[in-house]
Amino acid sequence: MEQCKIENLYNLNETIASEYLMTAEYPWELLDALSVFIADLGPTLDPEKYEQREKYVWVAKSAKIAPTAFLGGPLIIDEGAEIRHCAFIRGSAIVGKNAVVGNSVELKNVILFNGVQVPHYNYVGDSILGYKAHMGAGSITSNVKSDKTLVVVRDGKEEIDTERKKFGAMLGDHVEVGCNSVLNPGTVVCPGSSIYPLSSVRGVVPTGCIYKNQGEIVKRV
Description:
By secondary structure, the protein is mainly beta. It is built from 3 helices and 25 strands.
């Protein structure tokens, strides 16, 4: 499971949460205490660059926020980010620098690294999206199994019981997810990989690959 470790998925220079990510081996280990981390980090932010809009909600002054967006705390929206019409941020979320949270997108318990784009009708819950990861229109993270059992991350014959009931997807840096794809609970997509549109993904997609379907994952040429 080496490729699923934080150090192999993410450039930690591209998030305000870098120190927090350094405290764990695997990214899903950070989901439980994320809201506490955000609530503690917010008051330390530079008031010249960030404003506290309400309890546990900090927004960079350079961010663009649509008046119809809902901002639930704990929440940090970093510099240059754009929150578009009817976005629904339920809380426990970090939106990175120059990230885009688009029309009718819902976020819950997530870290979006700098430059992430979730611009059209996406649901992202209990997930961490790496630097410049992009989710196509209608693609979602499914964060609870239908039988409500605990999520296991599987990579071939290797597996890790996460001991979590809610776990969406961990996307490495520069991952591209095609339109209307579903990332099933426990999905890990390693850096530089792409997911075909209309895919149903589970398990680990290795670095630099193209996911065509469950039985066909090819190395990028």
